[in-house]
Each structure stands twice: as structure tokens, then as C-alpha cells.
Amino acid sequence: MRRPWIVGMSLAGLLLGACGDPASGPEGAPPTTAASGAPESPTSTTRPRPAASPTTPPKAPTVLYLGDSLAMENQKVLGQSLRDRLHARYTSAPYAGTTLCDYLEGTSAKSLVPAADKAAALVRSLRPDFVVLQFWGNSWGYTPCMDGITYDANRDTYFSRYAADAGQLADQIEGAGGARAPKVVWVLQGPDPITPDRVRRVNALYQKRADTSGDLVADAGGTVSPASARYTWTQYLPCTQYEQEHSAYCTQPNRDRTALHRDDDYLHFCLAPTTSTPKPCPVRSPGIVRITREITRVIADHVR
Description:
InterPro entries: SGNH_hydro_sf (IPR036514). The protein is α/β, with parallel strands linked by helices.
């Protein structure tokens, strides 16, 4: 059965918005497996499954992707990656500027996410096998569900609240799944040049939650970090073998390096300019491909 993509949109400032021009359409990553069959409809979330073989997963997983502006810009590339490699059924419902509490049921009155797109509501309706959560940890008081708690004003209170929200969100997802609760995939974030220790501690919260609950962790942020300095921000990294083999993703081949960020945006990985209306990224962007390939790898390893 085909399901439409769910794409949350909210107005946000430069660092809250995702990039892109909707008229140009998003660029997906190169296929991770050989394409087969007729071209897929752009509104489809599934790809026809080939006959079973030793390399075909026994079951095409259903994946739900939630998050903030980073998820907003990643969503179409992740969907393509999951379909190409796992023939996954995929739905995304990111909202720019959000944080964990926005997806909690019971917060609709002061949340950027409507009731129908709360995590538990979507789990009940879609019955996913995996729920991927990608949140930067927005901490500047933009989202009202944080009740004015910010990292700058009171760091201990911010982390206590963030840990509590992570636990509550995971519990709501599990409860909504009932006897076949989905696996939560916590996406670890990349370096932040402004508050590097904040991202380190947010990632530690995700890792601790996964360790204690049996959930999964995708260190997507590690793929956009220097190999020897996980929490050191950089605009460029050496081209990977994959990027060398797909030349559009090695942006400076003469210097054997590729761009992760634009000059005017240290946070997002889309190489198109940010816009006031958040949208999926419309151009090939190496950082987005690195992140989404790692998320796909983690899910694929667990499906097997």
C-alpha cells in the first residue's frame, strides 16, 4: 500500500529553516543497490520487492522519521536510501525548530507539532518497525513546550529536562506500539562550533537511553566529524571512497575534500541557501548523504 509522505512545515529563522527551492525538486543520493523495475512514482513510499534471494532482507521494514530542521532537509534522501537498500515503507514528519517535547502527546497547546503528527499518534496509525529521531537539541527558547528553559540560562536544568523528555518520548512510542513496539533509532548529532559541549552531552543522553532500553544509535554525526576529533567542527572533510566514486559528492576533487556546510550556515548540511519556509534539500549535499547512509546502515544491520 502506498502512503503519502508527511512533511511538516513551520516558519523559522535562518538557523531554524531547512534549505531549498521547492520548484527544483530534491536530489536523492546515488542508489546504494542496483535499481530494478520501472521508475517509482514520486509520491510512493514503497518499491516493488524482488524475488527472495540470499541478499534480500526477509522483511521490508516500515520506518518513521521525526525531527527538526536537520531532518527536514534530510528526509527525501533518507527515504530514497531506505527504499533502495531495504525496500522500506517510509514516512517522514519533521518540523523545523522543534525539540523532543514538541512530539510528546499532551503538549499540543504549546507545541510546533499538531496532535495528529505526535510521535505516538503516528506510531498507532502507521505501525512502524523503526522510529528514527533526529534532534539537534534546540535550546534557544524558540519552541514553547520547553517552558523557557534554555542551555545558556541554566545548563543543568536544560539537560535534566532534555533527559526527561527523551525518556517520556521513548515511553510514549513504546506504549503506542503495544505488543510490537518499534525500535527507536537515536541519531547522534555532529559538532557544534558554538556550544561543542552541549552536543556532546546531548549525544550522551541519547546513548544512555539506548543502552538502558535496548534501542539503537546511529552515529551519523560521526560521519561529518574529523576522524581524530569527533566534536571538532569543520566545513570540509577529505572525500570518502564513496564520494570519489560519485564525483558530484566530492566538491573539490583537486584538493580531495568535500564541503559539508555553506559559508553562511554552520548548522545545516544542505548546500543550497536556507529559506524562510523549511523544505527538503534540493541539491546534492555530501553531508546529508553521509548522515542518511549511516542511518540506513544501522537499520539494515538490525533488520538482518
